[in-house]
Write a structure and sequence with these properties.
Strand content: 35-45%
Radius of gyration: 15 Å
Structural class: alpha+beta
Number of helices: 1
Largest sheet: 3 strands, antiparallel
Strand order of the largest sheet: 3-4-5
Order of helices and strands: EEEEEH
Shape: globular
Number of strands: 5
Length: about 70
């Protein structure tokens, strides 16, 4: 099977409709991506096959680093 047969579809970015995210058949849940064209963030819902604009989660990576270091 090639990649096109395993695709669920494409979800356009809400800010730049010419840019799209690919969703595969096994994709579920939500994910945040930065638009490659304008740099704005969008949340993609792979179950509903929609996307909506979002604010960047400032400090999110720092919070995950803190959790990882506190476990050790």
């Amino acid at each position: 099977m090639n990649t096109a047969e395993k695709l669920k579809g494409q979800i356009p970015y809400p800010c730049c409709p010419k840019e799209k995210a690919m969703a595969f058949e096994s994709s579920h849940g939500r994910a945040s991506y930065k638009c490659p064209r304008c740099g704005k963030f969008a949340i993609f819902d792979f179950d509903k096959m929609t996307a909506y604009p979002a604010e960047p989660a400032r400090g999110a990576s720092h919070k995950f680093k803190m959790k990882a270091s506190s476990i050790d």
